[in-house]
Write the structure tokens for this entry.
Amino acid sequence: MENKIRFICQDCGCTKLAEIQIHATVTSPIQKIATTEFDMTYDYTEIQDGTIERYQCNNCGFILRHTKDSNIILENQPIDNFDDLMWWLEHNCEQHHIGKLPKENKNET
Ligand SMILES: [Zn+2]
């Protein structure tokens, strides 16, 4: 399924975005207890209480940063929240504008 909001990396053109979290609590229910930690089998990994540190390209690690226009005080600081991420994507990546057509093009056929 295609994303409604599109990310396109300015460095490599990759469209997969990664969210980097810190201070996260990770829960991994153990499926099979083994005698060495390398043989342990887990059901799944669940992350709780993480703090978003930054968003970056999943391929090349290009970090999304504030610009003068988004926040002059935080210019060049990594973007670390959803609202700013949306702003960045709207202003730096060409969007499809699904269900969100610009007013001037509303009646265009
Ligand atoms: Zn990239």
User: Anything to note?
Assistant: Residues 12 and 60 are 7 Å apart (CA to CA). The radius of gyration is 19 Å. The chain is about 10% helix and 20% strand.
